[in-house]
Specification:
1 helix, mainly beta, about 140 residues, elongated
Length: about 140
Amino acid sequence: MRRQFVVSFVLLVVLSPLMGESVHAQSLAPTQGGNNTGESVRSILPSQGKLGSEVASLRTQTSRTYVDHGVYSRQISPGSVNYQDAQGIWQPIDNTLIPSDAAGYAYKNKANAYRADFPSDLSTKPIRIQLKADWIQ
């Protein structure tokens, strides 16, 4: 039973990103007779496109967790989807370009651990990438 659960979980985690669906665990009642360990049985199911409200305190660098009617869903990504701000709190990455306040630069990324500034004309200034006090152009 446990091996079947692990295989099902691995298949869903690997295949779900390819199918564009998230994976979540739903608590079910313990089984009769087959599970004498006292553990709850968990079923891994693809979501139905409804994630509920995000639980910001459960963010990680590569995941976001949602709750809908007591059922938690976690979207896991192979790359970063959140970054830690100056206070160490995970924030969503948003690389949308917005107006830059840096002299000579027209745009910057909205929210990430690093800042990228883009000039309106690459022949006048290089792109500048900054992480804390360090930067490259």
